[in-house]
Amino acid sequence: MSGRQRTLFQTWGSKVSRSTGAPTCNSGTERPQSTGISRARFPAVAEAAGAAEVEPESDDDVLLVAVYEAERQLNLENGGFCTSAGALWIYPTNCPVRDYQLHIARTALFCNTLVCLPTGLGKTFIAAVVMYNFYRWFPSGKVVFMAPTKPLVTQQIEACYRVMGISQSHMAEMTGSTQAFTRKEIWSSKRVLFLTPQVMVNDLSRGACPAAEIKCLVIDEAHKALGNYAYCQVVRELVKYTNHFRVLALSATPGSDIKAVQQVITNLLIGQIELRSEDSPDILPYSHERRVEKLVVPLGEELEAIQKAYIQILEAFASSLIQRNVLMRKDIPNLTKYQIILARDQFRKTHLQILWESNKA
Length: 361
Prior knowledge:
By secondary structure, the protein is α/β, with parallel strands linked by helices. About 45% of the residues lie in helices and about 10% in strands. It has helices spanning about 10, 35-40, 60-75, 100-110, 125-135, 150-165, 180-190, 195-205, 230-240, 260-265, 300-325, 335-360; strands at about 115, 140-145, 170-175, 190-195, 215-220, 245-250, 270-275. A 7-stranded parallel β-sheet has the order 3-4-2-5-6-1-7, sandwiched between helices. It starts with 7 loop residues before the first helix and ends with a helix. The model is unreliable at about 1-55 (pLDDT under 50).
């Protein structure tokens, strides 16, 4: 046995007695006697009320008290953090160690981090390392991985199991098709959850999700965390119950502009950004040249008929706008949504200016 490991009785032996008196409790709350625990959890073996003699406790009773004490101490002290497990963090070496992954994983363990890596360079691997360590550090806590779609949820649970080997009996996948009462049972019995953000929002609002027990929240496709998207709702709800949880956000494209990136950072409580491109020095050894081959696939008769009907409808509205010089582009079949929005904004700006000048006159 290593110097860091201790048995239950070595850890809690000073607080667990074989006598019939109640074990002490540092928090000042009243602890039941060990025989009381037996009554509460195992009524079949409880002593009859008013019994004249209290029989000595068995080793099983003492073990139950020890387990009870362990759970209570982990929940009360340091937010459930296990100091013996937390003395170190684990990184897998059964596959080639990449310096950038090691560095990012270390950062993400100790700070809310937005990880921006090109596709295929190991964002899921980093997430699995962080999740596994929080799974160890908080034995009574929950670790949550959120992905925006069902296929991504399924893909991530398989990848995380392959990377770190968390026991499948402790993991569960939840989507909108999972019944509400089943999800409540899963929240109480599992420790590592993979789900869509909409499901988590619903469970938080219903009280099915034990928000205070969540210690690590991993967010895939984090660039979606804008406005009132479900990712933002989840974080806002969690902070109502606890501030003691780590956020790891993953994205290949964090945002289209600085404003969008700042929204993601604010909405997800990000404190550190780990950004790499395919040209980054520590990424180059693992980036491979790509060959892009373009294949043009014809629509087919059915899709061509739908396209023709759509263009006819579009022409009925667009031709009127073209006649009034609202739309400058006359190639209606190739008209895009973006072009229509630009034309609308320009129309509003022009007419507001005319209206302002006429009122001024």
